[in-house]
Amino acid sequence: GQQLNQSPQSMFIQEGEDVSMNCTSSSIFNTWLWYKQDPGEGPVLLIALYKAGELTSNGRLTAQFGITRKDSFLNISASIPSDVGIYFCAGQLTNQGGKLIFGQGTELSVKP
Amino acid sequence: NAGVTQTPKFRVLKTGQSMTLLCAQDMNHEYMYWYRQDPGMGLRLIHYSVGEGTTAKGEVPDGYNVSRLKKQNFLLGLESAAPSQTSVYFCASSPRQGEAFFGQGTRLTVV
Question: For residue A1, is pLDDT > 60?
Answer without folding.
Answer: no
